[in-house]
TrEMBL record:
Localization per Swiss-Prot or TrEMBL: Membrane
Keyword Metal-binding set for record: no
CDD domains assigned: SLC6sbd_Tyt1-Like
Pfam families the record matches: SNF (PF00209)
Primary residence: membrane
GO molecular function, one term: symporter activity
Keywords, ordered alphabetically: Membrane, Symport, Transmembrane, Transmembrane helix, Transport
Signal peptide: none
Recorded topology in the membrane: Multi-pass membrane protein
Recorded superkingdom: Bacteria
Membership in a protein family: Belongs to the sodium:neurotransmitter symporter (SNF) (TC 2.A.22) family.
Stated name of the protein: Transporter
Lineage, highest ranks first: Bacteria, Pseudomonadati, Pseudomonadota, Gammaproteobacteria, Oceanospirillales
Gene Ontology CC: membrane
Length: 456
């Protein structure tokens, strides 16, 4: 196809369509699926929330994912340069490249707290494997987690390890690093998830979990629950942070963006639902609270792991799976910055990794300290970690997604988007309607409600 710029060299492309799907699914499936989805679903009453979430994924998430991948694939460069060259092609203002900059910065900031939470997961592998939870009382398990958060040095050690693993892979480049890791880790992740669901089904409370997750009780759904479902749908598909844009830029022109994006969304959704089916039967079997909040998997689950047969084995497997999911997302969060540094500033991948990694490491200290020595450094009642999470998930990702949607829908020439998306298919026409009207309207409504102009 007539791209806006020349295509990347083959060594700078995914070698197969499957590799892209696995890498993009790796970016999508992360802490959002296994840590966040179950607890927000639990807090918001289950079934009805899940239903709204599924609608958001299908009607808003998939078209937005396609838009972001499309920009990358047609631009064939890092998010900043891709936006710049597509703006040029469309005869639009060069300022559109700021959307690429926003993506790079968002990914960078998000990774700074992502590595900390991923570090908790990594730390819980040896903690669980050594049988720490066996026979502990619920409040002792809670105290363990609190105690874990109290000590800055070990927390820094674990998040540093996550960052080093990430840089070790990303530093190797697209084929030897990102692609190889995704091809190995993603199948493993799904095998682990299925094993854990199988294990959960032996607790005798599987039916209760299925009912909790899939039987909608609209009495339990609030307006804020709907907004949370929507925000989480963007977050979980990695929309708006430049990750899918950079991965799209490594995609060969022959591959169908619509089909691969739908598949990635299906894999991400499957991972979230399977995580719920692995977690809730255990929670119910031990009479615990499904609305356990952020501590659901670090406190509620370990209580159960300490009591159930083979709990040490399956608990270890659980935190291993969580770490794998977090790592493959971490790759995608730093890749936009690294590609930008190498392609723009003419720096080697290695140097870019060291530089980017150091910046993220420094910033991650803010999140680490917000659980201990900096717990009272608050802004509008939010700790550093909570402020960063709110800023990114509540504002930066939706804003990035909105701008990308507007750009592909209204700024790019329809001939250009048609060329990337099989212009004569019914799917293309449906995409165009959703991305032009539904997506912008819904995101603007969220923003208006967030700044208090309207009240839902
Ligand atoms: N989708 C990832 C998750 O569910 C988070 C993420 C957001 C990753 C944006 C990359 C970009 O955990
Ligand atoms: Na996800």
């Amino acid at each position: 196809s007539a791209n806006a710029s020349t295509s990347r060299a083959p060594a700078q492309q995914w070698s197969t369509r499957i590799s892209f799907i696995l890498a993009a699914a790796g970016a999508a499936v992360g802490l959002g699926n296994i840590w966040k989805f179950p607890y927000v679903a639990g807090e918001n009453g289950g079934g009805a929330f899940v239903l709204v979430y599924l609608f958001c994924i299908a009607l808003l998430g998939v078209p937005m994912l396609m838009a972001e991948v499309l920009i990358g694939r047609r631009g064939q460069q890092n998010p900043v340069n891709s936006m710049a060259s597509l703006a040029r092609e469309a005869g639009a203002k060069p300022a559109w490249k700021n959307v690429g900059r926003l993506g790079v910065v968002t990914g960078f900031l998000l990774l700074s707290f992502y590595v900390v939470v991923a570090g908790w997961a990594l730390a819980y592998i040896p903690i669980t494997a050594t049988g720490t939870f066996v026979g502990l009382q619920p409040q002792e398990v809670g105290q363990m987690f609190d105690g874990h958060l109290q000590q800055p040095l070990p927390l820094i050690g674990w998040s540093t390890l996550v960052l080093l693993l990430t840089l070790g892979i990303v530093g190797r480049g697209v084929r030897k690093g990102l692609e190889k890791a995704a091809n190995l880790l993603m199948p493993l992740l799904f095998v682990f998830l299925l094993i854990l669901v199988g294990y959960a089904s032996t607790t005798g409370h599987f039916g209760e979990a299925v009912e909790f997750m899939f039987k909608p009780d609209f009495e339990k759904l609030t307006a804020s629950g709907v907004l949370i479902a929507l925000g989480h749908a963007f977050f979980t598909l990695s929309i708006g942070g430049g990750a899918m844009m950079i991965y799209g830029s490594y995609l060969s022109p022959q591959v169908s963006i619509a089909r691969t994006s739908i598949l990635v969304a299906i894999l991400d959704t499957a991972a979230a639902l399977l995580a719920g089916l692995a977690i809730f039967p255990i929670v119910f079997a031990y009479g615990l609270e499904p609305g356990g909040g952020p501590g659901l998997i670090f406190v509620t689950l370990p209580i159960a792991f300490g009591q159930m047969p083979l709990g040490t084995l399956f608990g270890t497997l659980f935190f291993l799976m969580l770490s794998v999911a977090a790592l493959t997302s971490a790759f995608s969060l730093i890749e936009p910055a690294i590609a930008w540094l190498t392609e723009k500033r003419l720096m080697s991948r290695f140097k870019a990794s060291v530089l980017g990694g150091s910046g993220i490491w420094l910033l991650s200290l803010g999140t680490v300290f917000s659980f201990n020595i900096g717990a009272d450094w608050t802004l509008a009642g939010k700790t550093f970690f909570e402020s960063l999470d709110y800023l990114i998930s509540g504002w930066m990702l939706p804003l990035g997604g909105l701008l990308m949607a507007l750009f592909t829908a209204w700024v790019m020439k329809p001939e250009a988007t048609a060329e990337e998306l099989d212009g004569d298919s019914a799917a293309y026409r449906l995409w165009l309607v959703l991305i032009r009207f539904l997506v912008p309207v819904v995101i603007m409504v969220i923003f208006l409600q967030a700044i208090g102009v309207i009240k839902l």
